[in-house]
Design brief:
The protein is of the alpha+beta class. The chain contains 3 helices and 9 strands, in the order βαβββαβαββββ. The strands form 2 sheets. Strands 5, 6, 7, 8 and 9 form a 5-stranded mixed β-sheet that branches. The protein has a 4-stranded mixed β-sheet with strand order 1-4-3-2, with helices on one face. β3 and β4 form a beta hairpin. The longest helix has 11 residues.
Length: 130
């Protein structure tokens, strides 16, 4: 079966991004490998044990990439983090200082709230309706 394994997210700093995604969002660090050119191969993913998609955290290499940090989807929600316990994860993320852009909503498709990551990219935290 095929799946999207990784999506690249351009960041300013590897260690800052790792801390945000692991501590504030609850992802796990899958890999952090130095590369010969001075970059690193950094992969984080939700606690899915390899069954979901991960993020490749790639440090911006030049000005063209730096201007994309935090606005990789033109200001719209570009990333969707599903949960099986909306209230638990919302409370944990709030306590960790995650910036939410609205109050949680309960829609026909599930419970949802928009938040920003460290760089300003917009995400949905979503518990799909059963």
């Amino acid at each position: 079966m095929r799946r999207i394994a990784l999506v690249t997210l351009v960041v300013d700093d590897y260690d800052e991004a790792i801390r945000h995604y692991t501590e504030a969002l609850g992802f796990r660090l899958v890999e952090d490998t130095p590369r010969p050119d001075g970059s690193r191969w950094v992969v984080v993913e939700p606690d899915t044990e390899g069954h979901g998609s991960g993020l490749l955290l790639a440090r911006a290499k030049d000005e063209a990439q730096r201007v994309r940090v935090g606005d990789q989807t033109g200001g719209r929600v570009g990333f969707f983090l599903h949960t099986d316990d909306f209230a638990r994860d919302y409370a944990r993320m709030r306590a960790a200082g995650v910036t939410f852009l609205e109050e949680p909503r309960h829609e026909p498709y599930g419970s949802v709230v928009v938040f920003q990551d460290l760089y300003g990219n917009r995400w949905d935290l979503l518990q799909p309706a059963q």
